[in-house]
Design goal:
With about 325 residues, the protein is α/β, with parallel strands linked by helices. Helices cover about 45% and strands about 10% of the residues. It contains 13 helices and eight strands. Strands 1, 2, 3, 4, 5, 6, 7 and 8 form an eight-stranded parallel β-sheet that branches. Helix 8 links the parallel strand 7 and strand 8. Helix 3 packs parallel to helix 5 and helix 8 packs across helix 9. The longest helix is centred in the last third of the chain and has 19 residues. The radius of gyration is 20 Å and the shape is globular.
């Protein structure tokens, strides 16, 4: 979700409603400290955090307990965040192999425990949570053991993505494996994550598996209204329909406006390439729109391409 779920996107999700807890993009703790020591602007991934509505979680990553504890405390004291979440699930090579963080740490439960203990102590009484995967590989699934480390170290909740680090995002999330963890947690809630791309799948997850909550991630990038639909389904209420193409087009323009307000029009135009490609996905004409919007250079380009190529209802 890094590079996508910034303040602008979170604002859109919040306006649709339905999400119980929003989370920022994950923040590199060591990078945060460097920026602070060099009196540079704090990471763009913290854009809007100080002032946006609560509850709000900030997710941090690194492999050094004191550094993570220091940043966690800063987030609590200066930003007033609702939850500090530690990422032990990211499978991206830059985080795992180069920085020995994220899901790399699933092979080092002792260090994970030390990280959680120090962050919990530094952030108290603000809750600290952890996000993991099933293990490093299919031959090294150790989520049950890791879950007990997470709980024993003082975390307030555990989120489990139903793939291993080696899986990346291939194949299907294994919700049966997620469910196996529940009996081993005595105090904290279990939150399931993976492949929840419709209100029906969210409802099915609650019906079939002993999870206390669910996390929606990649599926919301082209459906920021998914949370509202899922919340309605869980409550037994009518599920709101997807927006019309005209409504989605207006949403895209609103998204661009929010990004412009933060980054200025020139930088926003380039940033909107990836955001805009999430819109109209699965609709007739979406591929042609993506082809053109992926190379925009200016505000004028953006508006012209949206006007000419964004799919319209027949």
């Amino acid at each position: 979700m890094a590079g996508f779920t910034n303040y602008a996107f979170r604002q859109i999700v919040r306006e649709f409603g339905g999400a119980g807890l929003l989370a920022t993009e994950m923040v590199n703790a060591r990078g945060f400290v460097w920026l602070d020591e060099n009196e540079a602007e704090h990471p763009d991934r913290l854009w809007g955090v100080a002032d946006e509505p609560r509850p709000l979680a900030v997710q941090i990553w690194d492999n050094d307990p004191p550094t993570l504890a220091k940043v966690g405390r800063r987030l609590v004291e200066e930003y007033g965040v609702s939850v500090v979440d530690i990422n032990f699930g990211c499978p991206v090579r830059q985080v795992t192999q180069k920085a020995h963080s994220g899901s790399y740490l699933l092979s080092q439960p002792g260090r994970m425990g030390a990280i959680i203990e120090q962050v919990v102590a530094a952030c108290a009484p603000t809750p600290v949570t952890a996000k993991i995967r099933l293990g490093c590989t299919r031959d090294q699934i150790n989520a049950i053991d890791i879950a007990q480390v997470v709980e024993g170290s003082g975390a307030a909740a555990l989120t489990v993505h139903g793939r291993t680090a080696a899986d990346m995002f291939r194949g299907s999330a294994d919700w049966d494996r997620i469910a196996e963890i529940k009996p081993y947690l005595k105090r904290i809630p279990l939150i399931g994550n993976g492949d929840l791309d419709s209100a029906e799948k969210v409802l099915d997850a609650f019906r079939r598996y002993p999870v206390d909550g669910v996390m929606i991630a990649r599926a919301c990038l082209n459906k920021p209204w998914l949370f509202a639909q899922a919340a309605a389904a869980v409550r037994g209420l009518p599920v709101p329909p997807d927006p019309t193409l005209e409504e989605e087009r207006e949403l895209l323009l609103y998204h661009f406006k929010l990004v412009c307000e933060r980054f200025g029009t020139k930088k926003a135009a380039v940033l909107m390439r990836k955001y805009a490609c999430c819109y109209a996905q699965g609709r007739p004409g979406a591929r042609e729109f993506r082809k053109h919007v992926a190379v925009i250079e200016s505000v004028e380009d953006f508006h012209e391409i949206v006007e000419r190529y964004f799919p319209r209802s027949s």
